[in-house]
Amino acid sequence: RHYQPALQAGLIERHELGEHLDSAIAIADSAFALQYQPIVDLATGGLVAFEALVRWPHVQRGMVLPDEFIPVAEESGQIVQLGAWVLERAVADTASWQHLSNGRRRRDQRPPLQVNVNVSARQFRDAGFVDVVRETVRNSGIAPGTLILELTESVLMRRDERVRADMQALGELGVGIAIDDFGTGYSSLSYLREFPISILKIDKSFIDGLALSQQQYALVEGIARIADTLGVQVIAEGIENTDQRDLLTSMGCPLGQGYLFAHPLPVDRAVALVRGDAEL
Ligand code: C2E
Ligand code: CA
Ligand code: CA
Ligand code: CA
């Protein structure tokens, strides 16, 4: 045992994190928070949607990042409960913001603000998932089409009957489905034919090299063109500089997200954007 102290320490740490997570999930409203990162129309700079990103401010641990606790919650199954909380909170916030921006929207004829919510593979596989989405949307009163569920390719890879049936049920509900981190997993453009996918999010790793490598540029342009042909929208992730933005605009990529426009924002700053009290 003593020759693997690091591994042992890691296991104990994960175990403790899992127990802390349990207590946090029991009081989710006061233990977790959501931040909202703007998704913008690259041509106009206008706000189109927010991606909800969960945060866990912890007294002893400081701000625990999702990359640290989401994998633990996935492994234990706690993500089912936590994910349901994220969905409910994000949809409730969005319902109030759509209300806030109604007057402004009618004047400039913008479509209602959308919200993107991350769904982990483990959460999607839970038998109650589609019902949770249906109930949450119904209770909130938002138009189903303004909710976008972000799934990774690992969900679609299975291609079994359950996945098919659930994807179809979500499609019939009218919620949008985005493939997150597109290009990093077992990417297959055939997913776009097989499932009711409305959005592709091109992973940051492709955007990073956009201005530096012609190959990278050609790849992103190709993805954008195929998506466009199939009527699937594209969001470029992790845009950090104007060179990247300009290249994406010139290839006709409609939507983007990244530190160039905004970091994930606490709720009050997101509200200020929606009200028009702050600009991007
Ligand atoms: P993701 O879904 O790919 O989210 C994008 C991550 O990239 C976020 O990190 C965001 O803050 C960061 N990001 C956005 N723009 C930029 C940029 O221009 N440069 C750089 N360097 N980073 C950028 P975050 O919030 O730490 O989340 C990390 C991951 O944790 C997410 O990756 C997602 O997979 C997961 N996650 C976050 N919230 C949730 C949630 O509520 N449910 C689930 N299942 N997973 C979540
Ligand atoms: Ca995401
Ligand atoms: Ca992503
Ligand atoms: Ca990611």
TrEMBL record:
Domain EAL, residue spans: 14-278
Protein name as annotated: PAS domain S-box-containing protein/diguanylate cyclase (GGDEF)-like protein
Coiled-coil intervals: none
Organism, as annotated: Kitasatospora nipponensis
